[in-house]
# Entry
Amino acid sequence: MSGTPAAARACILAAVLGGIWCTLPAYAPDAPVPWDTAVLLAALGLGCEAADRRSPSGGPGPVAAGAFLPLLLAASFLLPPAAAALVAATGSPAGRVEQPPYAARRIWRAAQLALTCAAASWAYAALGGPATLGGGEAAPAFPRALLPACAAALTFSLVLTALDGLVLAAAERRPARSSAGRPPGCPPPSSAGSPCSAGPWSAVPGPVRRSRR
# Structure
């Protein structure tokens, strides 16, 4: 992380601390975490990221970049916030990183997706989403189940985009509004000389693929 601006380092550190805080309730002895579901989703996410990382650089691969984001949204529906954050943090560091600084991008990716999944899961639970899924002899409450699901998906997108804009603003020393208004993974032409903005900081890598680790 030696080439990372101080503002970007502070942003990454804050995201990491926030992500760790989000996962802490999962470690409680009486935490209501369905670990079998969490482990399955984490393994699927890890497999998707590993498959994308092994795909040929510069060409279509077997798994599109960011293909496991819907899986993370499903984790936000099926798991409590702490467990959903753990699922995101488990698989995301294994994904493709196109440009240096590699360590900083992997750490940011894990923290960003952990915060995003936790926020989406909180929104889903706050609107009674788990109760609408049914279970046992109860049938799913449709169409009422659409409200918490849509709210969670919206929260997922908003938090992911906001964090993208925040780290881009910190790395490129640009106003957060102009950074957030750009599609994720598309740095402005004026930032091409910056080691931090020479590629996407977002969870979904951009179309330019030069090198990877």
